[in-house]
Amino acid sequence: MPKSSSTRRHRTMERAVSERTSASVLLNQPQTRFTGDVVPRLLKIPVELFEMIMDSLLGSDDESAATSSLVSLAATCSALQEIVEPMFYESVTLVRCKFQRIKLFLCSVAARPHRAAALRALHIEFEGGKALKPYFKRALPHLGNLRELTLVVDEQSVFELFLEVPFRLEMFGAGGDMYPRCFERLLASQTEIRHLALSFHIHRYYYNAFAAIPHIKPQPAYPEFLPRLRSLALDLTAFKVKGFEYAFPITELLLSRPSDEDFFEALELFGDTLAACTVDRRIPGIVAYRPEERCSVWPTVQLSWKPCKAPSLRFLEVFDNQTSFPVGCELEEGKTGGIYTDKLRGSFPALRTFVWTVQCPKDVVRQRGEVLGMVERYARALFEVWSLLARFAFCLLNEPDEPRTVLRMNVWTRKPGLELEGPNMETVDLEKWREEELAPAANV
């Protein structure tokens, strides 16, 4: 799931092949020969001035044109190529790419030291992976400055290549069809990891004698195990929270598609230090047609099934991908989303920011007025339950790929004197909100 700030870490995969990655492959073409003194004059310009020119190009609104210009500049001569190329290689994303493209990239990094030195973030997702092993072997020794790595491959032996590498990762995302037998040793060798994102398909292990079961915890062989880990993202479609057998001091947690059991296991394990939590739910469409299950649409409903507590939690975000929103599902008196309010009060006593985003079909979005009427009553109930709650934001989306970092949302806020104001339509920067609430935990 790669950006080095804590929030963007939760966005596990970027778009398929970025413009810059495509450009990095183009840079392997031979340089054009020029006559006269055109190139010498260019080379007389100070390097700092070159960097300013290139920064202005990369900051252009027309990214395609800027990339094309830089590629042309890099193809002018080898001296200019060494100046321009690091900008293309600083962050590379190769997701759902053909084998030849990834092979070409790894070979290009191994061949040019200045390319390898520039690489800070690398995100690769590839089905299989065995054929890539020789090219990884050639490239990895040169990547001493790599700090962020996302590696999703089905061939578990690829991970063995990362046991002895010159770089120290701060962000590591890993996934594939099987959990590698060497994975705990790999994590133990990377003592600087602050953010870890996992999406292994654990359910297949029980049918595969060559796979391993995760036991992620300090052990006698490596007691200094993930000493800096503070942020964790888990795709729980297959991976389970029980793979963690140690209460790491996590302050930021992302749970994607958790079951009720996953949710409570995560809070039981990490709840004491948790400051921000994002839950990506998938609610079946049946809740729109079975009245006894309609209350599950409210994001706080899980809290009524089992006692849980996160005393330091300040930021809670819930994203629901639903086939429908049960319009007409009223809140019962004395309950908030099907949950008795006395159970909510003790769960997250420090909660200050609550964000709820719902992705629905267009026909539901057209009923926005009725939906907002229900959410209005829900919001007021939440402010009554949590005395420190400062803001609650709600948004209906109807586009699957609509960005979730900056949104137009309905916002309710608590003003001085405990007066509730809203809803007001505001542009909300969720990353900024999350960072604000994580700041106190970072200072501890």
Assess the beta-strand content as a share of residues.
15-25%
Spans of 5+ residues with little confidence (pLDDT < 50)? 1-37, 204-209, 285-292
The share of residues in helices is 25-40%
Give helix and strand order, one letter per element, not per position.
HHHHHEHHEHEEHEEEHEEHEHHEEEH
Radius of gyration: 25 Å
Global structural class = alpha/beta
Strand order of the largest sheet: 1-2-3-4-5-6-7-8-9-10-11-12-13
Task: Calculate the mean pLDDT score and round it.
Answer: 78
How does this model look, in words?
It contains 14 helices and 13 strands. The model is unreliable at 1-37, 204-209 and 285-292 (pLDDT under 50). It has a 13-stranded mixed β-sheet with strand order 1-2-3-4-5-6-7-8-9-10-11-12-13, sandwiched between helices. The chain has 444 residues and is of the alpha/beta class. The protein is globular and about 70 Å long. The protein has helices at residues 19-26, 38-43, 47-58, 63-74, 78-89, 99-111, 113-118, 133-139, 183-189, 260-270, 341-345, 362-365, 368-385, 430-442; strands at residues 91-95, 121-126, 148-153, 171-176, 195-200, 231-235, 252-256, 276-283, 315-322, 353-359, 391-397, 406-415, 419-429.
